[in-house]
Specification:
The complex is a heterodimer of chains A (about 375) and B (about 350). Chain A is built from eleven helices and seven strands. Chain A is mainly alpha-helical and about 375 residues long. Chain A has a domain of about 220 residues: MetI-like fold. In chain A, a hairpin with a 2-residue loop joins β5 and β6. The two termini of chain A are about 35 Å apart. Chain B is of the alpha/beta class and about 350 residues long. Chain B has two domains: about 230 residues, D-Maltodextrin-Binding Protein, domain 2 (3-Layer(aba) Sandwich), CATH 3.40.190.10; about 100 residues, 3-Layer(aba) Sandwich (D-Maltodextrin-Binding Protein, domain 2), CATH 3.40.190.10. Chain B is built from 14 helices and twelve strands. In chain B, the strands form four sheets. A five-stranded mixed beta sheet of chain B has the order 9-8-10-7-11, with helices on both faces. Chain B has a three-stranded parallel beta sheet with strand order 4-1-5. Chain B has a two-stranded antiparallel ribbon with strand order 2-3. The model of chain B has no long low-confidence stretch (mean pLDDT about 95). Chains A and B meet through α1, α4, α10 and α11 of A and α1, α4, α6, β9 and α7 of B. Bound molecules: glutathione. The site of glutathione (GSH) has 18 residues of chain B, from β10.
Chain lengths: ~375, ~350
């Protein structure tokens, strides 16, 4: 009870302090003649953005420009999180390997990259990609339709067609069926102690309907081939060097922290566990997969969550190498409209939401893992 | 991020808005002027080989310090990026912004600034490698264009390509070294856009040979560069404006760094008023009557500042052009100092 009262008092005073500051700030801003309010979000942005997942042009609003930035932040953060998790886990396990060379290489990688500021690494990757790769006119062309230059990688892409939409729907339905099948298999295992083999059925359910609906909707295979026109490649799909450098840099850097987290988690599982596994005659790989990792996971997940949050925040360093993420677009908006407080408040709300989403997901996962291992 | 918002909120809330006379009092109490300049653009504000700041924008800071404190060297320079310059001024981190800043309506109003005299008439242009054999900006169809983020240039270039109905890929980079690399070293972009004076400056300091790069003839915008102060402190705004005008007036009246003291005996009433021989101007501005004399003795007149930093004999090699005095075919003009 006392604690509640205390918390309430603290919260109320904090909120009123914030309100007071905001009030005074608003007065001062008005006196300095600085614009306030969120109306600017509807104004025409009048600047272009180098890459966007959704359609965007300078004639769109600041609001839409910020959404473009937000999606770019999500794109690079999510991909980096997935890649860094795989690489980090592999490196963390490798560092504990009895193979001296492997452990040494993994250790060097972790120690070296962890101690170089990320900004410097991004600059390095960006420089490497843009300086070593040729200009578009002299682009490397390893396979027909694929070009590598300092403008990035361009790949052929399937021409848009309704059939792909149908295939996607079929895939989602297939996934739902797989999950049902899985549940059935589980119940069967609980009852009979024997798990039915479902792998072929899963494969069929995933691929079959998707392939069939693509085929019966006309089986389109037309490719949008990139070609050099004037200064640049047009057509196809493009992966910019800014995106690639940020993805590489963020992944390589964050994987070192994840590796350490994984290593710590594994070391925390008592030695008796692996000894018990060995005395049962299990191979080291199986001991790791069936005994150590599931237990280590409970130790690993909480610190992993904070790594993921860091990665999302660190992705904003991409500003330095021209990656148009939320912060980059926000900065331009701030500069053109003068509404720094409003834009920074948008940054806060967005990053807070992403953080809460990641924490929420990780907590759910943690909960699930905890139950399974009991 | 949260810390940033908190500081922003606290500084705007507590370091209250600029009030008349407040900036001048603070400078006097501190005994020095804090001047926001660029991170290093030759001819405007860049540290020289001995580490001393030099350039037109820097000379203006010295002039202001001479007028306000009677000593041209009481200046603390603060290097700012295009992106963070306005926040630095608004929050009171710098007293004045003298950093190749374009005078625009939004900055004058929504950003809460006031501008001094226009001391350089510039325009945005394009620079391309000479080997591309391009002669007009209209040929830049689909090109990748580099620019610095936080400038007027991002908007102008988008407007330009919209007006000619051609696509382009922008690359807006905040860090000026990264930006210069992208154009001069890696060729990540085909074109560099910015104020033409700035383009000439980068070319003079970064290109192996000046002939390797051409600045295309089209100017796509007007970039009148002026010093900026916080809106609200009209007195300091007046001082900044009139120090600029005094530099111009001095050139027009033939008052130079070398002859400033002799000119005090001039029979011309305008010269007498400017140099404080006949008093009044100093009092009106809240400064010593010798303010303009101190300014010219410290940095010379407008023409001298121009020639010393960006003129024909410097690496930038700029002609006076639009920046000649109004009676010599240019736009540089000062209202009467009386
Ligand atoms: N006049 C324009 C552009 C000024 C500007 O920042 N130009 C760039 C390059 S063209 C520059 O001088 N950068 C120097 C630096 O960042 O140190 C404005 O006020 O927005």
């Amino acid at each position: 009870m006392r604690r509640w009262v205390f918390q309430l008092v603290v919260t109320v005073s904090f909120v009123s302090l914030l309100g007071l500051l905001g009030f005074i700030a608003a007065g001062n801003l008005a006196r300095q003649g600085i614009a306030t309010g969120y109306g600017f979000l509807f104004g025409e942005a009048r600047f272009e953005i180098s890459e966007s997942i959704i359609a965007y042009s300078a004639a769109n609003s600041y609001g839409r420009a910020l959404v473009v930035g937000f999606l770019n932040t999500l794109k690079v953060s999510l991909l980096a999180i997935v890649l860094a998790t795989f690489i980090g886990t592999a490196v963390g396990i490798a560092r504990l390997s009895s193979n001296k060379l492997l452990a040494g290489v993994a250790g060097t990688y972790v120690e070296a990259l962890r101690n170089i500021p990320l900004l410097l690494q991004l600059s390095f990757w960006y420089g490497l990609l843009t300086v070593t790769l040729p200009v578009p006119r002299a682009a490397l062309n390893p396979v027909t339709g694929v070009f590598l230059s300092n403008r990035g990688v361009v790949l052929p892409m399937l021409e848009p067609h309704a059939a792909f939409g149908h295939a996607a729907i079929a895939l989602v339905l297939g996934m739902a069926a797989v999950s049902l099948l899985n549940r059935f298999a589980k119940r069967r295992q609980e009852k009979t102690g024997r798990r039915p083999t479902i792998a072929p059925a899963v494969l069929l359910l995933l691929v079959g309907p998707a392939l069939a609906s693509w085929y019966f909707s006309g089986a389109p295979t037309a490719l949008d081939m990139p070609r050099l026109q004037g200064f640049n490649f047009i057509g196809g799909m493009r992966l910019s060097p800014e995106f690639a450098a940020l993805l590489f840099g963020l992944t390589a850097y964050s994987a070192t922290f994840i590796a350490e987290t994984v290593r710590g988690g594994i070391l925390a599982v008592s030695k008796g566990q692996s000894e018990a596994g060995r005395s049962l005659g299990l191979r080291p790989g199986l001991i790791m997969r069936l005994i150590i990792l599931p237990q280590a996971l409970r130790m690993i997940i909480p610190p992993m969550t904070s790594q993921y949050l860091n990665m999302t925040k660190n992705s904003s360093l991409g500003v330095a190498i021209a990656y148009p993420d939320l912060v980059a677009i926000g900065n331009i908006t701030m500069n053109q409209t003068g509404q720094a407080i409003e834009v920074v408040s948008i940054f806060m709300v967005v990053y807070l939401t992403i953080s809460l989403a990641i924490s929420g997901f990780m907590n759910w996962y943690n909960h699930r893992m905890a139950l399974v291992t009991r | 991020m949260k810390v940033f918002l908190a500081t922003l909120l606290v500084t705007t809330a507590l370091c209250s808005a600029a009030e008349a006379g407040e900036t001048l009092d603070r400078i006097k109490a501190r005994g020095s002027l804090v001047c926001g300049v660029s991170e290093g653009i030759a001819g405007f504000s860049a540290p020289d080989s001995t580490g001393k700041w030099a350039g037109m924008d820097v000379d203006f800071c010295h002039a202001l310090s001479a007028a306000v404190l009677g000593d041209a060297d009481k200046v603390t320079f603060k290097a700012l990026t295009a992106q963070n310059r306005f926040t630095a001024l608004q929050s009171g981190e710098v007293d004045v912004l003298s950093r190749v800043t374009t005078y625009t309506l939004t900055r004058d109003t929504a950003l809460g600034l006031d501008f001094g005299a226009i001391l350089f008439y510039d325009g945005q242009g394009f620079m391309v490698p000479a080997k591309l054999n391009i002669t007009s900006a209209k040929e830049l169809d689909g090109a990748t264009v580099c620019m610095q983020t936080g400038t007027t240039n991002e908007l102008n270039v988008a407007d330009f390509f919209r007006s000619i109905g051609k696509p382009f890929s922008p690359l807006a980079i905040e860090d000026v070294n990264e930006l210069n690399n992208a154009f001069f070293s890696s060729g990540r972009c085909d074109v560099y856009t910015g104020d033409t004076s700035g383009l000439a400056a980068w070319r003079s300091s970064l290109a192996k040979s000046k002939e390797d790069y051409v600045i295309l003839p089209e100017l796509i915008s007007k970039e009148p560069l002026a010093a900026a102060v916080r809106h609200g402190d009209q007195q300091f705004g007046d001082i900044v404006r009139w120090v600029g005008f005094a530099l111009i007036e001095a050139e027009e009246k033939g008052i130079s760094q070398a002859n400033a003291d002799e000119m005090k005996t001039s029979a011309d009433p305008t010269v007498q008023a400017l140099l404080g021989v006949s008093p009044g101007n100093g009092k009106a501005l809240g400064l010593d009557e010798a303010w303009a004399l101190n300014v010219v003795k410290a940095v010379g007149n407008y023409g001298e500042i121009f020639e010393r930093n960006v003129g024909a004999k410097t690496p930038l090699g700029l002609q006076r052009g639009t920046n000649a005095l109004w009676n010599k075919g240019g736009l540089i003009y000062a209202p009467p100092a009386r």
